[in-house]
Write a structure and sequence with these properties.
Blueprint lengths: L2 E6 L6 H13 L2 E7 L11 H11 L6 E6 L3 H8 L3 E6 L2 H17 L4 E6 L9 H9 L10 H11 L5
Parallel strand pairs: 1-2, 1-4, 2-3, 4-5
Bound molecules: 4'-phosphopantetheine (PNS).
């Protein structure tokens, strides 16, 4: 059985993330989408529990996807889950250096897990959770950026907030 982990912050999940989830789920028997619990990130838009809820909602029709959170090292979570693959999406060359460093670090810590990169679909090349937050903060249209199930939740979160 091929089991993969797709880790990230998902604050919030974007259409770019969902595209990678759908494509990775086709290549694997089980895909675990893993939300990082990062105690250093105090200014997240959504709590980890909320992000898990959003991910469950937008992946409810994909049978072989599970949503979990993890803390600490990704490879320790991969070991615990008996996963052989870590999936990461790649948008542009600018992503590459960081992602390559992360993949090599993970491989040096635990060579049994391979990182596999999936290139983003062109329509999501520009998209990131930070872009979504910036556009939503100033009242821009995020309709093409996030799954429709969470669009209003993201907009609501910015109402009454300082810009
Ligand atoms: O969506 P993001 O924020 O780019 O995801 C980054 C993530 C969660 C994949 C990365 O920060 C991570 O794996 N953190 C866990 C700590 C770890 O294992 N670090 C060693 C690899 S550099």
């Amino acid at each position: 059985m091929i089991k993969a982990i797709y880790p990230g912050s998902f604050d919030p999940v974007t259409n770019g993330h969902l595209d990678i989830i759908k494509r990775a789920a086709k290549l694997t028997d089980k895909l675990v989408v893993a939300v990082l619990e990062n105690p250093n990130k105090k200014n997240s838009l959504f709590t980890v529990e909320e992000r898990i809820e959003h991910l469950k909602l937008v992946t409810k029709d994909i049978e072989n996807v599970e949503i979990h959170s993890f803390s600490g090292l990704l490879i320790d979570f991969a070991k615990k889950e008996n996963a052989q693959i870590v999936i990461r999406g790649l948008r542009a060359v600018t992503d590459f250096e960081n992602e390559f460093q992360m993949a090599l670090t993970n491989r040096s810590l635990y060579p049994a897990v391979e990182t596999m990169f999936i290139p983003t679909s062109v329509e999501y090349l520009y998209l990131s959770s930070s872009t979504v937050k910036e556009v939503a903060m100033f009242g821009g249209d995020i309709g093409t950026m996030v799954p429709c199930e969470i669009k209003d939740t993201v907009i609501e979160r910015f109402k009454g907030r300082d810009k």
